[in-house]
Amino acid sequence: MSSPQMYVASTTAPVNIAVIKYWGKCDTKLNLPTNSSLSVTLSQSDLRTHTTAACSPTFTENRLYLNNEPQDVSGARQQACFRELKALRKKLEDADPALPKLSEHNVHIVSENNFPTAAGLASSAAGFAALVRAIADLYELPDSPTDLSRIARQGSGSACRSLFGGYVAWEMGAAADGSDSLAVQVAEASHWPTMRAAILVVSAAKKGVSSTSGMQATVATSELFEHRAKHVVPKRMAAMKKAVLERDFESFAALTMADSNQFHAVCLDTMPPIFYLNDVSRASIRVVEEINRVAGRAVAAYTFDAGPNCVVYYEEANEALVLGALRRYTAGVAGWEAQEVAASVPEGFDVHVGESLREGVGRVILTSVGGGPVKTGESLIDAQGLPRALSK
Length: 392
Ligand SMILES: Nc1ncnc2c1ncn2[C@@H]1O[C@H](COP(=O)(O)OP(=O)(O)OP(=O)(O)O)[C@@H](O)[C@H]1O
Ligand SMILES: C[C@@](O)(CCOP(=O)(O)OP(=O)(O)O)CC(=O)O
Description:
InterPro entries: GHMP_kinase_C_sf, Mev_decarb, Mev_diP_decarb, MVD-like_N, Mvd1_C, Ribosomal_Su5_D2-typ_SF, Ribsml_uS5_D2-typ_fold_subgr. The protein is α+β, with helices and mostly antiparallel strands.
């Protein structure tokens, strides 16, 4: 139970995996990107952040506990989120003196990710989206997810897209103050209900080069990057929106794979080069290419963020072929338990292409496209404003 002076709100928020990648900033303080991007929000039944925000006049500082460990909140990213949300609350309080002065209190955040943090599974996206949504709910802000995306963006660029479900564009904008660099929904998850995603978790370890530092090294040193941002991505954004709206999987797949490959090409074109893909990632690419070859068309699409994990998008109708092939190489790993699909490939499938998958994949996550943040009554904070899990 919360003490009379404590206000509490809780939410869950999803991970998103981009199919047109954000890579590069023109303003590192405001997280303004050098190109627009587009992502797919994954179902919170499988991957989610759960965050509770609380405020009270008894709190002496802003605090954040992630998976029950206290975190440093003095960084510019967390500070920007706290400051901007408090400013919005202050506006409401100025307009309505009857409202409690929550903007004058410090905030405690308790958050749990049900998947590995900082391992290339977009924890910062789900994490900052949940933080912003939970505080916005705590403050009863009337602002839309697009309005809030301007704030989440300052926590982590990709987080702005996790305020929506389905298919989400982050429009880069042109204003120097970032006011038009925001997320908008392209389509709800229900628009394309047959879309699925399989994640081959190659490494759940912390990655070597963070997205934040990697992308700035690319901006500073890669010539290829400039071509990508100026000439390639704008056309791809338009084509990807069309593919999503028309549920055209072949175009969606071609664009997704080309964009992942180009993102990793600009990483390789960075000085010193950045290698996020490893032999296991490359074997996953070959297996997907082989699936598509035997199918005679693109029925599966791979994409990789700043790490070796492979995300494969496919449609439900092709589940037997796509998952059958992936399972053939990874049958013993966690994640297949609930799946009926047989570990088999059709005649003519060159099974040698994926041998390295056998050793390198530690877990599979089978999921689908899902909705945006969801309010929940399940609080992670105890009456003292500390993680409930620690007071048990
Ligand atoms: N639930 C959360 N609440 C608040 N902040 C979080 C949460 N989860 C992660 N973060 C922040 O995000 C950081 C991890 O971000 P990072 O970009 O390194 O990894 P990632 O998002 O898992 O990988 P990628 O962005 O490449 O997919 C954490 O160190 C923490 O600061
Ligand atoms: C490869 C990516 O996943 C990069 C994500 O970068 P972040 O959003 O983690 O970077 P910061 O804005 O510095 O926090 C591509 C994408 O999600 O679009």
